[in-house]
Amino acid sequence: MTRRRRILPQVSNARKFKLHLVFSIAAIWTLVDLINFFTSLPSSRGHSLVYNLIDDSLLLRQALVFFLSAIVAYLLVFVLKRVFRNYSMWFALLTKSFILIAAAVFISFLIHVSYSLGTGNADLEHALGNFWYDALNTYWLFQKVMYWLALLLITQIIIEVHDKYSPGVFFDLLLGKYLRPKVEQRIVMFIDLKDSTPIAEKLGTIPYFKFIREFIYQISSALIEHDGIIYQYVGDEIVVSWRFNEQNTRKCMDSLIEARKNLQLRGEHFRRRYGITPEFRVGIHAGEVTVGEIGVIKKDLAMSGDTMNTTARIRTACSELNQKFVVSRAFIDHIDLKEWQSESLGQVDLKGKNNSIELFALRI
Residues near 153 by Cβ (< 8 Å), separated by ≥ 6? Predict the structure, then answer.
């Protein structure tokens, strides 16, 4: 148990989520292949196998399918996504397609040969001969490759759509969780780049865009690492939320510390490439938020309410108060901070708000 506690914390939350996605894809592909296997059998043989599922050759086949599916899913989720992150969509799609076709052929080959060996009806030489015979003299290989390629491409599309939203949001939309608006207690954080206007003037349009893209990538990595649900990007601004509880209040704070650490670790890179080290300002508040689906052509989850407006005003107040990280009393009351880690700024009048609220500066 002690050893397990030492190992697990080394795996980041973002990586755990991706690994969970890999194994989910592998399990679904294995199930789909099993269904396809039974439906493609002659009815008499299919019925006999249904009543005799504990069959060594069948178990070998499905174990191999799961293993290969996990490898390809890992390739899709971890490797290809990272490799093609800065390439155009058409180039990435074309290259991935060739890789997926090669993967589909390889999967079909291994499954065919291993299943022939597993049934005991052929040795390795005959198993290879059977594969080449089926591949060159029938439509078998074409059908199998098209089957696996379709499965791979559908999965790739789902991953791309899933990545458009924060973890969990895509499935909320898929299941229709927010077809009717719901009122939820949320922690909301607004983050934006400090001194964005002079930086844009100094760098110029294209370099500034690349600068913003790298800045947002580093911040977003920290937010996702601590289970933040990214609501939207607006220019250099990121809006993120957590469901309101004490554990997520801590995660919100940890994500802020991690985001600053990410930028510090990449500081030399930013200075060398852009001549600037990015800094950011943060406003954090907690309270009721109305969440629901919005849009016709491009559906999305929208969050509205006084909590959203107040958080935006708190982030704007950072400049006026000459502070980097400002939070509300509603947030500070639910997190255990040492006395030196926060400082009351008193009652502050926020633009557009009738009543002043007490704000705190974080010293982290």
Answer: 97, 100
> pLDDT tens-digit profile of 61-83?
788 888 888 888 888 888 887 77
Residue type for 21, please? Answer: L
Q: Which of 20, 27, 100, 21 is nearest to 63 (CA)?
A: 27
Q: Which domains does the chain have, with CATH numbers?
A: 2-164 (no CATH), 169-362 (3.30.70.1230)
pLDDT tens for each residue of 266-295: 999 999 999 999 999 999 999 999 999 887
| pTM of the predicted structure, to 2 decimals | 0.72
**pLDDT tens per residue, range 289-323:** 999 988 776 677 889 999 999 999 999 999 899 99
HEC readout, the chain:
CHHHHHHHHHCCHHHHHHHHHHHHHHHHHHHHHHHHHHHHCCHHHHHHHHCCCCCHHHHHHHHHHHHHHHHHHHHHHHHHHHHCCCCCHHHHHHHHHHHHHHHHHHHHHHHHHHHHHHCCCCCHHHHHHHHHHHHHHCCHHHHHHHHHHHHHHHHHHHHHHHHHCCCCHHHHHHCCCCCCCEEEEEEEEEEEECCHHHHHHHHCHHHHHHHHHHHHHHHHHHHHHCCCEEEEEECCEEEEEEECCHHHHHHHHHHHHHHHHHHHHCHHHHHHHHCCCCCEEEEEEEEEEEEEEECCCCCEEEEECHHHHHHHHHHHHHHHHCCCEEEEHHHHCCCCCCHHHEEEEEEECCCCCCCCEEEEEECC
